[in-house]
Design brief:
Number of helices: 7
Distance between the termini: 80 Å
Radius of gyration: 25 Å
Largest sheet: none
Helix content: over 70%
Structural class: mainly alpha
Strand content: under 5%
Number of domains: 1
Order of helices and strands: HHHHHHH
Oligomer: single chain
Length: 233
């Protein structure tokens, strides 16, 4: 049977970095904001004060996530650029040695030595640095660090996650603020875990249980500490 066209395939690798940043940001937004709201509410604060502190937590958390992600991914990017600069210098100094090194990689993967050298020569003729970056360093356009993209994704997703418990606290009657915020936040975490698992082709049940379990623990601990502080003052 003859195929005239390639079968299109979808892979998750290219979206791994922004997906990780987005899921982490949204999860942090829900958990930290809900925990903050529950801790303050458990300390018997007024509903207006609870919401004000929650909004401040949303803004501070978004900025913190963006700054932290940018610094972290920038460090990774700096390391990648240093490796690429070193590889570029080696290619300029001794291209024949680098070609043999690339061919050796293909030989270890199972190619015949003659074919490995031919492949290495053709790849280096087209893009020597790109070939060595991929095979030696594991760096490609799909996996390269992108600090600004990661920072924006983290900040936006944190804010989106933090809005959910804030809405629960805003819409709930004052007497039901704690149970409504906790229930709504855990439901949001369950949805986030399921969506992230489906986006990454991971088991939905395990991912959902993990996200909800840790979120519930964080909220319970913070609310407990808030209640103790409120009773002491």
């Amino acid at each position: 049977m003859r195929h005239d066209r390639f079968h299109p395939e979808r892979h998750r690798t290219g979206s791994a970095s922004w997906l990780r940043a987005s899921v982490l940001g949204a999860n942090d937004g829900i958990v930290s904001t809900a925990s903050l709201l529950l801790g303050v509410a458990a300390a018997a604060a007024e509903p207006g004060a609870v919401l004000g502190i929650g909004i401040a937590g949303l803004v501070a958390g978004s900025m913190s996530m963006a700054a932290g992600e940018y610094v972290s991914v920038s460090s990774q990017s700096d390391s990648e650029q240093a490796d690429l600069a070193r590889e570029r210098a080696e290619l300029h100094a001794d291209p024949a040695l680098e070609r043999d090194e690339l061919a050796g990689i293909y030989v270890r993967r199972g190619l015949d030595p003659a074919l490995a050298h031919e492949v290495a020569a053709q790849l280096m003729a087209r893009d020597a640095l790109g070939a060595h970056a991929l095979e030696e360093l594991g760096i490609s356009d799909l996996t390269a660090a992108r600090p600004l993209q990661a920072a924006i994704a983290s900040a936006a997703s944190f804010a989106a996650g933090a809005v959910l418990p804030l809405l629960c606290a805003l819409l709930a009657p004052a007497a039901q603020l704690i149970p409504a915020t906790a229930t709504g936040s855990l439901a949001a975490l369950a949805l986030l875990g399921a969506l992230a698992a489906r986006a990454g082709d991971a088991p939905v049940g395990r991912a959902t249980a993990r996200v909800v379990g840790w979120g519930a623990l964080a909220m319970a601990v913070t609310a407990g500490i808030g209640a103790l502080v409120g009773a002491a003052v």
